[in-house]
Amino acid sequence: xxxxxxxxxxxxxxxxxxxxxxxxxxxAARGSNLVxxxxxxxxxxxxxxxxxxxxxxxxTVLPMDLGRAGVGAELFTELAGRGIAVDTLVNNAGFGTxxxxxxxxxxxxxxxxxxxxAALVDITRAFLPGMLASGKGALVNVASTAAFQPIPGMAVYxxxxxxxxxxTEAVAHETKxxxxxxxxLCPGATRTEFFDVLGSDSAxxxxxxxxxxxxDTALKALDRKGTPGSVVSGWTNRVAAGIAQRLxxxxxxxxxxxxxxxx
Length: 263
What we know:
By secondary structure, this protein is of the alpha/beta class. The chain has a single domain, classed as Rossmann fold (3-Layer(aba) Sandwich), CATH 3.40.50. It contains 9 helices and 7 strands, in the order βαβαβαβαβαβααβαα. The chain has a 7-stranded parallel β-sheet, with helices on both faces. β4, α4 and β5 form a beta-alpha-beta unit.
């Protein structure tokens, strides 16, 4: 069954491109009003204008840097002041770093953890009570297949996504008797700007998916009568994730190291 989100509002972070923009397109097509959050206001405005024209929905654009302490309360207060209640939240904003930890910039690592972990938790906590009261939407946190094993060469990124997966599955269980569907989405390599920011495509393990394919996976899971706490996008990624969970930990670490290193 395809769920309608008509009359609801979806807040999407990292909405200026890639998975975030694709989620915006899909929820708009299902009748949801949107709040689009990212740093690049020009891209957000272009997307907002397109979606208003195509779907006749309300789109609110909020250019924000989410990697700051207290951003959840800040975002919630801003929207409450505009009379906007959020039914669906897609925590998509995040980035990765690639290289040996000893060579990484500490400031960049701190920003990576702040955005991928702290902001995601903070925003989720800020909007969760309202979403539970509504019972009409969903919480989607974008994790990664990187969550299923430690990744030497992407140690911080892999750990942040392992956190997102664990956190989201726990929240899904905590809220299982509500009308809110909670999902950790675990894509593998996807054709987005992620690898441009990463600075290397050597970490693109396996067959690339498109943003549309990944969001298809998420929406199919949300449309199910019993939405799972997590879903891996792509059958080869599902197989690889399953194998990683069954092999000895030292073996999975060695395999991951060989897969992503380019030094």
